[in-house]
Amino acid sequence: MTSEKVSYNGTDNSGVITPPQTSSMAESGVDLAYEKKIIRKVDLRLLPILAALYSVSLIDRANMAGAAIAGMMADLKLNIGSRYSIVLLVFFIPYFIFELPSNLVLRRVGSAVWLSSIAFSWGVVTIGMGFIEDWRIMVFCRVLLGFFESGFLPGCVYLICSWYVRYEVQQRLAGFYLFTTLVGGFSSIMVYWLTKMNGIQGLAGWRWIFIIEGVITVAIAFLAYIFVIDFPDKLLQRRKPFLTDSEVDIIKSRINRDRDDSQADPITWSIVVHHLADWKLWVYALMFMNGAVPPYALAYFLPIILKGMGYSTGMSQILSALPYIPAVVVGFTLAWWADKSRLRAPFIALGALLVIAGLSMTAFSSHHSVRYFGVFVCLAGAQNNVPAVLAYQANNIRMNSKRSVGTALQIGFGAIGGVFASTVFREKDAPGYRNGLWATIGTQFLTLLLLVCMTIYFKKKNRQHKESTLDKPLENHPEFTYTI
């Protein structure tokens, strides 16, 4: 099997640097069936362990709502003033600040060491949260949790996007993300059963939520050290790489056929500043912030909203989990369709419209059944848009250094979305939280506006590329065009 680099044949209208046709690929020594076999090996080794880690990350981050209605509010006096919102909000401050430095450390230290270490650390913090007696200590622990979790999601997205070509990446991001949200959604049922441990060893049920979930995180962190793989250009430096030299060369070759950046370029702080000067990265980040608001809002406040409808604590936890099932089906179906069609913006727009429709039902209907159905509609759109917006940026940038910076910035703005969600849903608006729901709807209208602007810009630049009237190549490559 040859590992020679295959020459470019130009671009198609989706923005992908088009590889040679199948016949010429065969002549060049490219075996498509063998490539697919290698990619399946990468899928099985890379995605499950990252999904498992991110699942516990979401659970450890979003278990506050379950603990709140299980007695934590009263025990820690979080029902005084805005204490509960403060506890939620402080998580996102270090989460935003340390994402970019973490991505820079990731390349130097190695994926397995770095991701497993920070997972172990936030697992220990989560266990400690089960023994807190003062709400101010809870604030401090949430700050630590934000610090340790800050590097995980941008690191995962950066790593996944480095292994796949652009028209494969949304399905992988969706599979990784949607599996974790499904587990995270059903964590409310686990939370309900953990509260049944109330009184064991003299500890309240809400304390067992943090303790048991923290122990699970620590256990998975040890597995991550063993199974997480590194970037394609660093894989062979490991003692026992799971791919052979020739298989790694094939991975690099197909990435080079797609976007010509399989080898990491140097990254310094001056290069970071240079990439941050690209206004498009800030638009992608703002779109991800808008996409992050609905999932955070539902994770933190849905059980409380359902309890306000008159459901018991246990039923609120169970009903909070059910909407995640169809959301995963819808999200993965749309991701497959998006990769198949090599389009991004139309699917993001569809997700935003679903969020608007669902939240409108939940906010303004007087019937509890309609309000609850609105949660299903909203979550389907919200869970589609998180991986879709990540893929939108991944498809429209090149170079490892820019991917590292862009991913950290984008997910950092997701933290701002979490801050937004934790502040617009105010305790005084309970149990309906209508102001928060309307504010969340506003973020989706902003996404639609940004999509229109970016689509017009991308089409203009692609047309100029086709007509050879550009001042300089798009993304510093003569064959690159944008994915609409």
Automatic annotation (TrEMBL):
Its main location: membrane. Pfam families: MFS_1. It is found in: Membrane. Keywords: Membrane, Transmembrane, Transmembrane helix, Transport. InterPro entries: MFS (IPR011701), MFS_dom (IPR020846), MFS_trans_sf (IPR036259). One of its GO terms (molecular function) is transmembrane transporter activity. The chain crosses the membrane at residues 46-74, 80-100, 112-131, 137-161, 173-194, 206-229, 281-306, 318-338, 345-364, 370-392, 404-425, 437-458. It is a multi-pass membrane protein. GO terms for cellular component: membrane. Residues 46-462 form the Major facilitator superfamily (MFS) profile domain. The keyword Transmembrane helix applies. Residues 1-24 are annotated as: Disordered. This is Major facilitator superfamily domain-containing protein. It comes from Tuber borchii (White truffle).
